[in-house]
Amino acid sequence: MYVIRRVYEVNPGMAKKVATMVQRQGDIYHNAGQRSEVRVYFNGGTLPGETDRVYMEWTDKVIDSPYREGLTLPKEALEIGAEVRKNVVNQYIEFFEMMTPAIMQEN
User: Fold this and answer.
1) Strands 2-10 and 53-60
2) Considering 22, 60, 68, 98, which has the largest number of Cβ atoms within 10 A of its Cβ?
3) How far apart are CA 23 and CA 10, in angstroms?
4) Residues 90, 34: contact at Cβ < 8 Å?
C-alpha cells in the first residue's frame, strides 16, 4: 500500500483557495472511482513551518500511470486543475510505502 502526496507551492495568500479547489478536485476523482478518499491540508502563513503550501494525499494499492489505457479523466477535475495551476509556483509528487503487518520485519 502506498501514500501518494502532491505538494503545491502557491502564490502568497492563495493557500486556502487552492486547498479548496484541490479538495473538490480530489473528491471528483474519488467519486469517479479513480482515487481513494483524499485528505487536503495547507499552511497559509498562520502556523509555523513552510508557508503557502497545499498538500493533497491519498492511498493506493499500486502506483499507476496517469496515461494508462482506458483512463478517462473527469472534465470537471481537469477544469479545476487549470484554475489551480494559475496560483501554483511549483508542484511535485511524493510516494511512500506504508508500513503494514504483511511487510514488517521480525528482527
Assistant:
1) antiparallel
2) 22
3) 15
4) no
| The three three-digit cell numbers of residue 74, written as one number | 473527469
Cα–Cα distance for residue pair 28/40, rounded to 1 Å: 14
Q: Output the nine-digit C-alpha cell for 61.
A: 494499492
Rg (CA), the chain: 15
Q: Which residues contact 63 (CB under 8 A, 6 or more apart)?
A: 2, 4, 95
Identify whether the C-beta of residue 10 lies closer than 8 Å to the C-beta of residue 52.
Answer: yes
- For the entire predicted model, the pTM comes to 0.90
**Strands, E assignment, the chain:** 2-10, 39-43, 53-60, 88-97
